[in-house]
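Reopening this one. Same input as before:
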Amino acid sequence: MACKVLFALAVWLLLATCDAGRQMPKLADKKLCADSECSHPILIARALQDYYPGDCRFIPIRQGQLVYVYALLKDRGNLFWAGSVQDSYYGQQEARIGHFPSSVVEETHPLMPANTE
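Same output, byte for byte:
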């Protein structure tokens, strides 16, 4: 009986301190894209510095890496963009898709206008 009570208490403590199931805060209220599904890249950018993300919504970027930008998140300024990066050798790794701060990249090639919200 005591084992069952201790087990139930341990499970309750584990669940009470776990963040699983909680919704993360939104990064922005508006998103600018080239089309309604954000499936076409808006621009190509080059990373100015390494970026190591703090959570699963963001992607790691290495200095010099090309980033295909699909969306500009708009709130109070252009703080975050959404895009994808590929490893240096195209077939070596699948593209990673996620968000990153706009301050770690510079625009190199505009591709399409971002006007769809």
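So the earlier flakiness isn't reproducible anymore. For the record, The longest strand covers residues 66-75.
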